[in-house]
Specification:
Shape: globular
Order of helices and strands: HHHHEEEHEHEHHEEH
Number of strands: 7
Radius of gyration: 21 Å
Mean pLDDT: 85
Number of helices: 9
Strand order of the largest sheet: 5-6-7
Largest sheet: 3 strands, antiparallel
Strand content: 5-15%
């Protein structure tokens, strides 16, 4: 029993942690029940899961999202989505795949959405990945993506990653990527005869995200 004391203390600490309450706590609604209700209701088209209030400590965000991905992949392998395909949109995808979290005693591989990208299509479960750091997304995952919307990339490694992931992008087309302006993108995919430049229409002002950073001049002027 003495050999297990350290393990028991660590387990109790994790179970009592406020940061991991979203995984081990009994308060609130069960995410699996909410997902099942969404999937069973044909009138519901979109299920938005926000991680705004999930802590960064103890890798709670990564663990929770990976658990949700594993749950969806389990449903897919049970042929839940054959008649009603599902698409998962994952923002900041580089944070949630292609790496492990934890310590030397307890390491978890974040591979759920990578597996969805690689094998989910045959089950009716596909994914859309959004990232500003494509170099941090595993190459074997990028190679499974059918269509790419490439916005402005200034990092050379990011551009090289996109070139390797899509054989349709030659050097001349890749040269335009650093000079793309806001809202411009290049669409790449097997159904397109050549890279297609597009201009994305800005959303209505009432629906635009608050993505601007702090106004330093205005804030410091008031000091």
């Amino acid at each position: 029993m003495n050999y297990c004391n350290t393990l028991i203390v660590r387990m109790r600490g994790m179970l009592a942690s406020s940061e991991l309450r979203c995984l081990f706590g009994s308060e609130g609604e069960d995410i699996c029940t909410l997902l099942d209700g969404f999937l069973k209701d044909p009138q519901q088209r979109i299920c938005l899961i926000s991680f705004k209030n999930v802590s960064f400590n103890h890798n709670a965000r990564e663990l929770l999202l990976n658990t949700i991905g594993e749950y969806l992949l389990g449903l897919a392998r049970a042929d839940r989505f054959r008649a009603q395909p599902v698409i998962c949109f994952l923002d900041e995808a580089h944070q949630f795949m292609g790496r492990s979290v934890g310590d030397e005693f307890n390491s978890v591989s974040l591979d759920a959405f990578g597996l969805i990208a690689k094998e989910g299509r045959k089950y009716g479960l596909t994914t859309v990945l959004a990232t500003q750091r494509p170099r941090d997304v595993p190459q074997d995952v990028l190679s499974q993506l059918g269509t790419l919307f490439v916005h402005r990339l200034t990092n050379e490694r990011d551009r090289e990653t996109i070139e390797r992931a899509c054989g349709d992008l030659d050097r001349s087309a890749a040269a335009f990527i650093p000079s793309l302006s806001q809202g411009e993108a290049i669409v790449l995919g097997p159904d397109l005869p050549a890279p297609l430049p597009i201009q994305i229409t800005a959303p209505d002002k009432t629906a635009q995200p608050t993505s601007r950073g702090p106004d330093y001049q205005r804030a410091w002027r008031q000091l």
